[in-house]
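[Meeting: bench + compute handoff]

Bench side (C.D.) handed over the final construct sequence. Compute side (W.E.) agreed to return the predicted structure before the next meeting so the bench team could plan truncations. Sequence as handed over:
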Amino acid sequence: MFVANNIVEAIQLMLAPGLMISACGLLLLGMNNKYSLVVNRIRLLNDEKRKILDRSEESETILADNVRLESISIQLEKLLHRVKLVKYAVQNYTIAVALFILTSILIGMSYLFEIGNFQYLITIIFLLGMLLVLAGAAFAAYETTKGYEIINLEVDAE
């Protein structure tokens, strides 16, 4: 049977990945918000593009409309790239959460069944989760940089 200290130690060890799950949850929340904003921006630009094209069918296309259509096309291309970056960040964070959950389960199983050989596997899985969090943060940072570039395009077009 378990000694009280072993149970407390097992719970403490299982909580470390739990903290990372909470941290990833916050990161996922932020990235899902970014995803929604970027998708909404794509929809707005597509709608604006459709209206300009409908207007150009009715009358002669003016130079300002052509310039705006060019700007919209460039922005849409860059926004699609941004959506991919957000998707990669979300995927990395989600897989990291799964690895942290697996880490907690393996810690609990190693104490419950008194298996000492899980230490290396548990450490490797936890480190893989941390690396995925790092990769997700890198994608998020790169996506933010791309977002800034798109804003500059919008301002320069006006």
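W.E. noted at the follow-up: The longest helix spans residues 4-58. C.D. will use this when planning the next construct.
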